[in-house]
Each structure stands twice: as C-alpha cells, then as structure tokens.
Write a structure and sequence with these properties.
Layout: H1 5-9, E1 14-17, H2 21-33, E2 39-43, E3 60-63, E4 76-79, E5 96-97, H3 99-107, E6 111-115, H4 120-133, E7 138-142, E8 160-164, H5 167-170, E9 179-182, H6 190-193, H7 196-208, E10 215-218, H8 224-227, E11 240-243, E12 246-249, E13 255-258, H9 268-272, H10 275-283, H11 288-297, E14 306-311, E15 314-318, H12 325-335, E16 340-344, H13 353-359, E17 366-370, H14 371-380, E18 388-392, H15 399-408, E19 412-416, H16 429-441
Parallel strand pairs: 1-2, 1-4, 2-3, 4-5, 6-8, 6-9, 7-8, 9-10, 15-19, 16-17, 16-19, 17-18
Antiparallel strand pairs: 11-12, 12-13, 14-15
Helix pairs in contact: 4-11, 12-13
C-alpha cells in the first residue's frame, strides 16, 4: 500500500487535522516516508505551535477557531478520530482519509477488527493473549492507545493484527478487515454523533465493505436487526451459545466454561464476549482447549470491575470504564450484592430509564450521584426509591463519605460504575478510576 500513496498525494500538500496522539503518529510516519512534501498541521489548540516536532521546520501550522480556514481544495487531508467538523465545513467527507482507512486498506487480510460500545479493549487484549499463547505472531493496535502507523514498518506477512476500533476511527473508512467482530451496540457518544443511527452507522463500517469471502462475527444476536440495512455480509453462524452461566457447544449442549471458572474476568457479559473469539479460533484453526485456558487465566485491564482492596471488610471495585447505563447494569449483575454505588459524571443526555428500573429491584443501601449526569439521575429517580440517595457536586468530595462508610460497614461492596463520561471533572475514565484508587489506598 505504501507504494500506492505517492500516486494519491502527488503534487499535494499533506494536511493533518488534529495533532493529538494519532495526529503526531501520522506526522512522524508520513514525514519519514515523504520528506519532500509540505505539511499543514491544523488543530484548534493553539499550544500545538509549541510542539517540539514542529520547531525549526518549513511546515505550516493553523490553530485557533478558524484552523480549518487554511485548508485548500487539493490538499491530501488525514483526519484524526474525534475531530468534529463544523456543519458549515466545505470539506467533502469522500475526500477525507485517516490512519485507520489507509492501514486497513494495506493490511486487511491480516487484520482482526474488534468494535462494540462496551468490552472492545478487554476482548481485544484477551484475543491477543489467545494468539500469543498458541505461538502466533500477533500485535494489538488501535483505540487501546497504539496508533496503527507506529507499527506499519514492523508488520510481517504472518503477523496477525488485532485492531481495536472506535466509532470515531470507523466513521469515514472505505475498507473493512477480513475478520470483523461486533460485540454489541448501545447508544453512546451522542454529543458527537447526534443520533444513535449515526453512531451505529459508524460502528457498522467495520463490516460494511467486506465480501462474502470475509468473516463477520456478531457478539450479540439481538443486534442482528440493527445491522441488516448496512451490512451485506451474513454474520458467521456461531457454534456456541450462552446457557445460564456457561458457554455451551450448540451441537452437543456440552458446557465448556462457566463464569465462576474465570479467575479474574467478572460477569456474564464478559463470557458472552468470548463467543465470537471461540468462533474466530475455529476459523483460524487454532486449539479450542488452549483458548478456553487462556480465557480462564486472563487478567483484565484496569478500570473494568477492578478489585482495588478491602478495608474492614468493605470491598472496593473500580469500574470507571462504564460510561453508559447498560455497562453499569452488567457490573452490578457481576458483583451480585453491591451495597454502595457511585453514579454520574458528564451529562451526555443518555436515557437512564433502563438503569432506574434495574436499581429499583437491586438491594442497594446508598447511591452517590456525582456531577451533572448524577444530578439529573438524582432528580429523575422517584423519591420512594428503596435506597438512600446522596448528591455530591464533585467526585473529589466523596472522601468525607468514604470515612463514614469504612467505619460503619463490614462485608459490603462499594462500586464505582458511573454510567456517564468523566470529562466534567477528569481528563478521561482512566484518570477518574486512578483518583478512586488513590482515594481508597489512603485508607488501606
């Protein structure tokens, strides 16, 4: 694919929209391979001008509110994920390129793409473990924080590429991986996509451009109706099914793995996400027994129903990754008996009725509501809730309540599973989870 790029960008200026992690990766890669080209770095953040990589160069920089004004019609434009183009932007989406698009075009035969509203990082990391445990040459890239271009020059013909893909990365792609996994679909990122239909459409690009010779694995069969109008390729017919708390083989109903056999992964939703991985293992002709062992021993990433510690019998779990109501419901199901729950953060206008209905029948003692989303939940929940409700404007104020919980409670669970984004108070969900961990560690 790299040898095709000169034809695409011949006599064109290379314009990079967004100079965050992926934008910087794009600049490093393309300036290395095409040093003779002029680059335009366009980013609303004025601090971009002070970036060390851009000092003492002839490249052009456009920042501030009118940063898009420097773009020209014939530019070769590469957009970073999450850069939202204004409604009056004259750029045609058909003229936009991205790392994801160019990378999939080049390596689609080796790529196993994984997306879904929730669970994609854990599932992608688990798949990497499965492949490495069976002596396959494999790498994990993408939305997990590893820009694809950083790995381009390291990929060999027998390298399997696990590519975690967000809706932002998939929004403008023209190609799909030969192996695509869609775990689930719930409304999210509506502050960016405006409607759930727009969000779903971006997600479904993971398989939209596949042929009948490619493989599409659907993690949640209930999403089948949502994909029919967007995806021509028929989802792979699974050889497995989820019955009660176990994955069973369809042909024999034999139980292969139960939730209580997973040493670190918690929850039926985690087991459910393993089904498309088992189907993929069949297609790749890998060993099923070894795969099941990898699943049982896999230790998940931080901030995903992560056990922090216990103080006087009060057990603390960090599930900061849960930014939608469906994820928080699954966390509560996984831990069974949570006494104290922390909800809230940035209000992205999600519908929380499903969560409210679930909480009314769950044996909670106190729910702490944080930030703008927490305030709305606090107000929308009926006054006769079976648990006590406490509204806290900022998460940093939780410490005064924490002391009392530790002094008064034993054999209980306190769970951070916010059902909302973190950006009202924190840079990202990791920072929020780390703050919670630091708070607990003060008392450990």
């Amino acid at each position: 694919m790299l040898n095709k790029l000169p034809a695409i960008i011949k006599n064109k200026r290379i314009a990079i929209l967004g100079f965050g992690m992926e934008g910087q990766s794009t600049f490093r890669f393309l300036s290395k391979h095409f040093p003779e080209h002029i680059f335009l770095i366009a980013d609303q953040n004025k601090e971009v001008r002070d970036h060390p990589r851009l000092q003492h160069s002839n490249h052009l920089i456009s920042t501030g509110k009118s940063y898009l004004g420097a773009l020209e019609k014939d530019d070769f434009v590469i957009k970073s994920p999450g850069i939202k183009l204004p409604a009056d932007c004259k750029l045609d989406s058909s003229a936009l390129f991205s790392q994801t698009d160019l990378f999939i075009q080049a390596f689609h035969k080796q790529i196993i793409g994984i997306t879904g509203t929730k669970g994609k990082s854990t599932t992608s990391s688990l798949l990497l473990k499965i492949l490495i445990d069976q002596n396959k040459k494999a790498i994990l890239i993408g939305n997990i924080g590893k820009p694809a271009f950083d790995y381009w020059d390291k990929i060999e013909e027998d390298t399997l590429i696990v590519f975690e893909l967000s809706a932002h990365q998939l929004e403008f792609v023209r190609y799909s991986p030969d192996y695509s996994i869609l775990l689930n679909l719930f409304p999210e990122h509506l502050d960016y996509f405006k409607t759930k239909e727009n969000y779903f459409r971006a997600k479904l690009n993971i398989a939209k451009f596949q042929t009948e010779h490619d493989f599409f694995f659907l993690g949640d069969p209930s999403n089948e109706n949502s994909i029919k109008s967007s995806i021509q390729n028929i989802p792979y017919k699974s050889a497995y099914n989820l019955i009660n708390n176990a994955i069973c083989r369809n042909s024999t109903s034999e139980e292969l793995i139960q939730t209580n056999e997973m040493l670190y992964l918690k929850g039926l939703h985690q087991l459910k996400n393993c089904i498309p991985l088992l189907d993929l293992v069949q297609v790749l002709k890998l060993d099923e027994v070894s795969t099941l062992q990898s699943i049982k021993n896999f230790k998940p990433l931080p901030h995903r129903i992560e056990f922090i510690g216990a103080i006087n019998g009060l057990h603390f779990y960090n599930d900061s990754i849960s930014t939608i109501p469906e994820a928080s419901i699954e966390a509560l199901k996984a831990l069974v008996n949570v006494d104290y729950l922390i909800l809230g953060g940035l209000d992205r206008k999600l519908n929380y009725q499903k969560l409210y209905d679930f909480l009314e029948h769950y044996p909670l003692k106190i729910v702490f509501f944080i930030g703008p989303a927490g305030k709305r939940m606090f107000e929308e929940l009926t006054s006769n809730s079976k648990f006590n409700k406490v509204y806290i404007e900022k998460f940093q104020s939780f410490e005064i309540y924490l002391k009392e919980l530790i002094e008064q409670n034993k054999d209980a669970i306190c769970l951070l599973s916010p059902a909302a984004a973190s950006y009202d108070e924190f840079k990202n969900f990791e920072t929020r989870g780390n703050f919670f961990r630091t708070l607990i560690e003060k008392f450990l």
